[in-house]
Amino acid sequence: MAALLAAAVTFPSVAQLDAANAASARAATVETPPAAPDFEDALRRLSVGGHAVFVPIIGRIGIDLVPDGFEALVAHRERFRKATAIVVELDSDGGTDAAARRIAVALQQLGEQTPVIIVVRRAIGPAAMILTAAHRVFILEPAPSGTIIAFQPELDPLQEMTIDESVDRFSDSMEQLLEHAPRRDALEAMLASKSQWSLTSRDAYALGVAEPLEGGLASLGRTMRIEPWVVANRQVEDLLRRSTVYAQQVSVYRSRVTARAFMSLESANLAMAQMTAAEFAAASVDPRLGGAFPWGYRAEPAGDRWTVTLASTAAWQRACEGAAAAWLRVAVLGDTAQQALRNANADVAALIAGGVSDASQDQVLAEAIDRLERERSEVESRVAAIQARVRAARDESEAIAALAKR
């Protein structure tokens, strides 16, 4: 019987716990962010001398078309110095003010050396800002009878702005764009009255905002008296499309990694909550901490020796073994919480390292990394204390087993 009682229960070591947890927990994500298009190489091969450059702006601005590609064209504006014109086909009825303004500014900068011609099919909402970059504006005929041009702000309920606040912000943006507009006088006179912010084709002609274009885009050279009228190949259009695809890939990547970081954080919170509950449970069964133990069966000292019975030794040893197992569960939950926090930290760091966030986001993400690291360090300290209790309970159990051999 004494030999049976002396048989030690095998508990995993701290190192084994760490290895098992690392194997079972999701490893930190290593995901390659999307690769940005190589504008440098593509534009180096671009030849537009004596040609018009066709630039379509079709769809929702900031969603179906992003401003990044236009800003890349500005960075290589010397490639367009010998172009006869930059022809923008504008057909948009939605998008964001911020993206439309960035495109307008980019086209204004390109227009400092090359005329910008805008052919309007629809310019409703933020897209109307882009008209401030045009040297000439045409409306394709026959035009619909309804509104063709509407200077309207983006109305996004997520921005928590009233309609008046959105209109005021839109007006401020237009005023800033008009400072560098080639046709400032025509647009400024129209925008002075908000009743003229929505225009049919006839309204636009009467106010001098646009001109009619018969015969489609092919007749534009004849209308502008540019001969020969040759439109360059579609390389620029392709670059803008690739820029939009890249922006969409970045958005998906950012959403996926961010969602994964939040899932890891939720897992960490759940593990820490379970860890706290397990700590209370372990304390309640640990006889060394005054937990529930039938004290009447504990061996008592007599003089300088212990008076030990097998029954009391077995009860005490079982209680210590139960406490060690309970504290071990707490440690495992703590390790799980640490791993989840590491995963969240790695995902947040990946957003910064991948270059898919702007400077303001980087600051927020860096602060999130600091908070996650502090929280992980706190959990690590708790786990170290718990592991000490695991060892103490095991030592107690082994000491009782050794005492039973006497």
Describe the structure.
By secondary structure, the chain is α/β, with parallel strands linked by helices. It has two domains: 2-29 and 257-404, no CATH class; 47-231, 2-enoyl-CoA Hydratase, Chain A, domain 1, CATH 3.90.226.10. The chain is 54% helix and 10% strand. The protein contains twelve helices and nine strands. It has helices at 2-6, 14-24, 39-44, 68-75, 97-110, 163-178, 184-191, 201-206, 220-224, 235-285, 310-353, 359-404; strands at 52-58, 85-92, 116-124, 136-140, 149-150, 198-199, 211-213, 300-302, 305-307. The strands form two sheets. Strands 1, 2, 3, 4, 5, 6 and 7 form a seven-stranded mixed sheet that branches. Helix 5 (97-110) links the parallel strand 2 and strand 3 (116-124). Helix 2 packs across helix 11, helix 4 runs parallel beside helix 5 and helix 10 (235-285) runs antiparallel to helix 11. The radius of gyration is 36 Å and the shape is elongated.
Secondary structure blueprint with pairings:
Blueprint: H1 2-6, H2 14-24, H3 39-44, E1 52-58, H4 68-75, E2 85-92, H5 97-110, E3 116-124, E4 136-140, E5 149-150, H6 163-178, H7 184-191, E6 198-199, H8 201-206, E7 211-213, H9 220-224, H10 235-285, E8 300-302, E9 305-307, H11 310-353, H12 359-404
Helix pairs in contact: 2-11, 4-5, 10-11, 11-12
